Structures are given as C-alpha cells and as structure tokens.
Amino acid sequence: MKPMDAEQLREYGHQMVDFIADYYKNIENFPVLSQVQPGYLRQLLPDSAPTHPESLQDVLDDVQAKILPGVTHWQSPEFFAYFPSNSSVAGFLGEMLSASINMVGFSWISSPAATELEMIVLDWLAKALKLPDEFLSTGQGGGVIQGTASEAVLVVLLAARDKVLRRVGKDAIGKLVAYISDQTHSSLQKACKIGGIHPENIRVLKTNSSTQFALSPEPLSEAISQDIASGLIPFFLCATVGTTSSTAVDPLFALGKISKSNGVWFHVDAAYAGSACICPEFRHYIDGVEEADSFNMNAHKWFLTNFDCSALWVKDRSALIQSLSTNPEYLKNKASQENLVVDYKDWQIPLGRRFRSLKLWMVLRLYGLEKLQAYIRNHIELATKFEELVRLDSRFEVAAARKFSLVCFYLLPPKSNEEIGDKLNHDLLDAVNSTGKLFISHTVLSNRYVLRFAVGAPLTEERHVLAAWETLQEKASDLLMNL
Ligand SMILES: Cc1ncc(COP(=O)(O)O)c(C=O)c1O
User: Any keyword NAD (predicted)?
Assistant: First the structure.
C-alpha cells in the first residue's frame, strides 16, 4: 500500500475537487435543513469496515446518495439559521494546504513557519480591527488561533483565575466570582464549570429591551460591590459584542473601567460581530476594547475562513502561559529553553495544533481588506432589506434592534388570542424549515419566542432573501387562516 502516493493524490484530488465544485454548483437543489430522521444512516451503511479496498468512486457515490441527504447545508445561500459558518475558495485552499503539510505545530521548533505565520497573520487581523497595540505580538501580548470561541473563553478564564489565585492563594478558588449577562453565550458557563468556579459564583446579570439587551454598568458595579462586601473575589467579566440571541452590544468602555478598578479580567466576546469591525463604519461597536484584557472573534463565522479558526488576542501572554505551560523532557529544545520563541502549546488546552493560520492568510491575501469589507457590507444591506420587508407587513414585528446582519422578528398573534404567540411562531419556524427552501432558527427575548434571520452565507444574494421572505409570508398566511 502507498498511502501517500503523489500521482494517486493528483488523480483522486482532481476527482474530489470536481465533486466539491459540483456540490457547490448544485447546492440550491438540496433541502437546506436535512429532512432525515434520527438513526437514518445506520440502515444505509454496513455494520463493519470493509476488509478490502473500495474505489473512490464508490465512496463518492455513497456520499451523494447517503451522506448528503443527512447534511444540513450551512453553505447554502438559503441558510439563515444560527450564525453563518463561512467557507470560501481561499479558506478551502488554505485547509487543503494545511491538510497536505499536516504538521503538528505545538512548539516553534515543531514547525517554525506555523508559529510565525500565526503570529504575523493575527497581527495583521488585529491591525485591520484597529485593536490596541498591546494586543500585538511585538509587545507583551499577542494573538493565537483557537478552535472555537468556547476554547478561547476557557483559556482566558483559566489565566484570569490563576492570576488571582497566585495573589490570594489556591484555597480561595471557592470565592472567585465571574460576571456575565443573561445574553452571554453558554460557553462562558461551561468554561466556569471546567475552571472549577462555583456555580453559585456566576453572576448572571439581567438585561432587558430598554437597553436593547445590553449589559448595563450599574448592576455590574452593584454586584461587584456586594460580592466584595461579602468577602468574595470578583475575577472575571465577559462582555459581548453581538450576542447570540439578538446581536446586542455591551458598553465596553464603561464595563471595562469597572473591571479595571476592581482588578477583574475583562474579556470581550465578539465571536460573530467582530468581523464587521474591519469596516470603519462598524468599528465603533468595539470602542472600549482598549480596556479589555482579551478579545475574541471567530474568523470561521463571518470572515470567509473555513471552520475552525477562532482568533483570540491577549494583552499579557504571560498570564496564559503561566496557566497552561508544561515542559516535559521530550519536548525540550534550545529555542524554547532560551525563551526566543512562542510555543503555542502553552496558549491552549491541547498539545497538538493544526496549521490554521494558512487559511486565514489565504483569505486575507486572496481577497484583501477592501473586498472583505464589501462582503460584510453586502450582508448587512441584505439584512436591512429583510428588516424593511418585515416592517412593511403589519402582521409581523421586528423584535430587536438590528445592528449587523441578524434580524429578530415575530409573527403577531390575533389581538383576541395573544397567548398563542409563542406557538404561532414555533409553528411558523417548523413550517418554513420543513419546506427545505430555507433554514431559520429562533431565540427567546423578553419571554417571547422570536424568529432569527441571520444573513451571512457566502452565496446569499438578494433573490434568496426575497424568496425566503415570500415563503415566510406564505406560511404565515396559512397559519393565520387556520387559527
Ligand atoms: C457570541 C458568541 N460567543 C461564542 C460562541 C461560541 O462559538 P464557538 O462555537 O466557536 O465556541 C457563539 C456561537 O455562535 C457566539 O454567538
């Protein structure tokens, strides 16, 4: 067997690229949301692995016939659920290159280019976002690519925890308090769980529609004062720019000031909306990021970089390293011992790491910042268009102020029967998603079940948005007529 024969790679690679190109060409023909039932695949595949080799064509036939029906097509132009998870030719080629080189860049010596390119590309992106210089790798800080925003928040939470515990002693872990809002992504709760933060010491501060679901500085200040008075130790605040439910933006500057004056680590989660901040007109959403200790955005969401690529920057890399470094004999080397290099294994949970900077580098180089800005603007314009359509139909209501490319909306129940509002919207969601023509998701805002329409798939054009709205209107008419 020759598992990595260059000529076979060339032949199969061409065949695979053709298959993938055809997939993208025909992607609109698939139902966006997979319509299969749980367990469908077990009935279609054999019980055990083949003893003898099969042909690539046989495998691709199975992908077409058995796998693709069970795929929800995130790259479909009619995918409007959750937040987008972009792919692009540049991102795809970067992934391909990364898979080809297939090195494991845990420390600088294990593949110097992987570490150095990651540092450079994250400096580029930091500059495009106009992050403060302290986040650049040329100072005490720097950027690192994590797999997901969840890993990013976990590692900074661990760094913040250990920084405080070094000062107050390990036994005080039960006194550490983290602050979030009721709109903060659930990954923060998970990070607290893993980090040993007492569940009772997670302050989930309430937001409401009067602040457009943003966290107000006053309740934070009050909660911190109360906790200090009770002998507890505030240590971590997570603010969000572009919350998952409704893309609310927390006031970074005011929250950051409170954090700083109380010695609290301030993390900014801009997983989705961070990408928009490369546009000068949207950069103001992260004003105040200069107060943050760490900042995160997912290039794999809305920045054309294939999953996974979550960019995290910290101002003080030593805090991360002190928390996460290990130094086993088998990894010792001159460059690391002499402190000449960055070893990214000490900035993340796993040891092994992929050459992910290649795809971000490809995206930045093959598109350039101007085109990337235009890409973001186009989605925001399409979302604005959708929002206008919702407003023009008196049966609907826009349920939260739109800032980026997400529109939250609500089908109003009849005045005489308002209590069926949640069910009506739930039914509308099911009705449109089961058509296979589009896929949207939902959230709950101010105790109401509302629908989310997130524009952001790379292939989405105005005609897709208009068609989606037509389907929504049609299904809404059916539901209202049958009440
Ligand atoms: C605001 C926000 N933070 C964090 C996350 C988690 O992202 P990941 O899947 O990269 O962990 C999401 C996911 O949508 C998000 O919207």
Answer: no
